[in-house]
What we know:
It is built from seven helices and five strands. The chain has a single domain, classed as Rossmann fold (3-Layer(aba) Sandwich). The two termini are 18 Å apart. The protein has helices spanning 5-12, 19-28, 37-50, 53-63, 75-87, 95-107, 117-121, and strands at residues 2-3, 33-36, 68-71, 111-113, 125-127.
Amino acid sequence: MLVDxxxxxxxxxxxxxxxxxxxxxxxEEDFSWITVNVTAHEVYTRVRYDRYFDLAMQHYDFxxxxxxxxxxxxxxxxxxxxxxxEQYSDQKLSFHDALCAAVMQRIEAYRVFAFDKHFWIMGLExxxxxx
Length: 131
């Protein structure tokens, strides 16, 4: 199952509306957790802009831990991400989310641990399932 930025932020931020559900889900579910290499960069940047350096590094390190397998995107994934962005041009999808969806399609992984409706919009199974 792919771990998205929204899930990582919910796991660490006690004030996030999904914090308790994210912690429960991550601790109780027995998935093979994966992330796209650039997700750690996005998480670091979002947390750094909103909070402070040490917390941003904590989020980054979490996504680089042994518990989560790292998947690198390839040039063809970027091409597919553009196709996805054009397909959903009526939505405000981030390039990052489209890139993650492209990687997921390539490796045939269709579940994402996220609290970001855009994955659901792109037809992926978003768990724990809240929009």
